[in-house]
């Protein structure tokens, strides 16, 4: 097994009964099912899990298999495990399918940062091209580091900027304390003159309210769902935190135990009934989130808030691109091997018109 050893054997053993309890609450059951999959999804409170992951794994796939595949579905936060541990536990076989944001795992797999560098792309169509070009790198990283096989790469909506103080653009971030959404985002913010802080998503509202931070980055609809509009006043809709790509992977040993025809069924269903709808939703959800946060447009999710929408300028996009080229991309290139750089430059680099070189 090539996955990295989990820190703390006692902690791992303590999680086994928890996993058995949580995953034992099966959403689909069949005494005659030949394949059983325990699935741990991403944030249980967000639309990705509720609208896409949960329905797909609990209903769509079992029905498409005519009951030959049985699933048990939960989310990592419902299990009480850290988001950064999802692929570690997946690799060790605590569950069969794991789903989490690639940026959460970069301390173990720095290659995955190259999927979602800040401001690498601002449009969902190009973001999908990036995901497709990056998939071979993701597959190698997940296989070698986490004993897992990639099934899908899909995005959260664009990761935009919320501030509790008036801003007019990126230049106003200088000197401000900003919660980023990953190491590369932190490096990007530092390049703009901001102070980057690492704060858990659910701790952001309190940190904004107390003035621990001035701004924070997350998806527009995620910020609306979490009530960030109550503690922030201005929003800049540039994907400063990228797209927070979510990777779905299956334990390699489990995958190899499934016959080829069933493997093909699973992959086809993931492609058609999960990956495609999530990508179709990405752009719409970003715009719905902006409408809900600012009151500019329809908000089907509830009562709209009244945040001030800051329209990005050409100066903003040029400054962001410069920070990416001069600071973020070289820093990442220095953390990965030559083979990864060559593969990235030949794939993602061609999509986004960038070339990565180690400093």
UniProtKB/TrEMBL annotation:
Span of the signal peptide: 1-33
GO annotation, biological process: transmembrane transport
Keyword annotations from UniProtKB, A to Z: Signal
Keyword Transport carried by entry: no
Top-level taxon of origin: Bacteria
Gene3D superfamilies: Bacterial extracellular solute-binding protein, family 7
Keyword Signal found: yes
NCBIfam families with a match to the protein in the record: TRAP_S1
Name of the protein in its database record: TRAP-type C4-dicarboxylate transport system substrate-binding protein
Organism: Kushneria indalinina DSM 14324
Organism lineage string: Bacteria, Pseudomonadati, Pseudomonadota, Gammaproteobacteria, Oceanospirillales
């Amino acid at each position: 097994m090539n996955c990295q050893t989990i820190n703390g054997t006692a902690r791992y053993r303590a999680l086994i009964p928890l996993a058995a309890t949580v995953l034992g609450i099966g959403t689909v059951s069949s005494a005659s099912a030949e394949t059983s999959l325990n699935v741990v999804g991403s944030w249980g409170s967000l639309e990705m899990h509720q609208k896409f992951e949960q329905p797909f794994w609990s209903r769509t796939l079992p029905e498409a298999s005519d009951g030959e595949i049985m699933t048990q579905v939960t989310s990592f936060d419902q299990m009480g495990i850290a988001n950064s541990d999802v692929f570690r536990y997946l690799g060790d076989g605590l569950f069969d399918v794991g789903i989490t944001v690639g940026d959460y795992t970069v301390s173990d797999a720095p290659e995955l940062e190259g999927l979602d560098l800040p401001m690498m792309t601002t449009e969902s169509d190009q973001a999908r091209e990036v995901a497709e070009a990056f998939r071979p790198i993701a597959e190698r990283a997940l296989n070698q580091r986490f004993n897992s096989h990639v099934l899908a790469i899909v995005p959260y909506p664009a990761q935009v900027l919320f501030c509790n103080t008036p801003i007019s653009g990126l230049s106003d971030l200088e000197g401000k304390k900003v919660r980023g959404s990953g190491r590369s985002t932190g490096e990007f913010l530092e390049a703009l003159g901001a102070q980057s802080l690492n704060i858990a998503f659910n701790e952001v509202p309190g940190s904004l309210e107390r003035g621990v931070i001035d701004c924070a980055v997350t998806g527009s609809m995620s910020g609306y769902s979490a009530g960030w509009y109550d503690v922030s006043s201005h929003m800049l809709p540039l994907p400063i935190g990228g797209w927070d790509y979510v990777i779905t992977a299956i334990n390699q040993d489990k995958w190899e135990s499934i016959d080829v025809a069933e493997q093909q069924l699973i992959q086809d269903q993931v492609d058609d009934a999960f990956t495609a709808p999530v990508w179709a939703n990405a752009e719409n959800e970003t715009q719905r989130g902006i409408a809900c946060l600012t009151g500019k447009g329809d908000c089907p999710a509830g009562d709209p808030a009244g945040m001030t929408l800051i329209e990005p300028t050409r100066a903003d996009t040029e400054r962001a691109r410069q920070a990416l080229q001069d600071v973020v991309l070289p820093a990442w290139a220095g953390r990965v091997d030559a083979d990864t750089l060559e593969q990235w430059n030949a794939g993602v680099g061609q999509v986004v018109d960038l070339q990565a070189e180690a400093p």
